[in-house]
UniProtKB/TrEMBL annotation:
The keyword Zinc does not apply. InterPro entries: Ig-like_dom_sf, Ig-like_fold, Ig_V-set, TCR_beta_variable. It is found in: Cell membrane. PANTHER family: NON-FUNCTIONAL T CELL RECEPTOR BETA VARIABLE 7-3-RELATED, T-CELL RECEPTOR BETA CHAIN. GO terms for cellular component: plasma membrane. Pfam families: V-set. GO terms for biological process: cell surface receptor signaling pathway; immune system process. The keyword Glycoprotein does not apply. Residues 13-68 form the Immunoglobulin V-set domain. This is Immunoglobulin V-set domain-containing protein. It comes from the Eukaryota. Keywords: Cell membrane, Immunity, Membrane, Signal.
Amino acid sequence: WKLRCDPISGHTLGQGPEFLIYFQGKDASDDSRLPNDRFSAVRPEGSVSTLKIQRTEQGDSAVYLCASSLTTA
């Protein structure tokens, strides 16, 4: 198989990962500047979370990563 990657304009060279949302229990803490009318995160089961993007736009193109832990630091 092949992986095709076409560059698109509007990306900042050297820009690192950006922290978006974290959960404490079922409550989301959103420190990002993402538009709340299109980006939402839920954790209804208490352990599985979902990021939902509605009406995607070209600028939403990114690698979205998720990390989870059953314990806290």
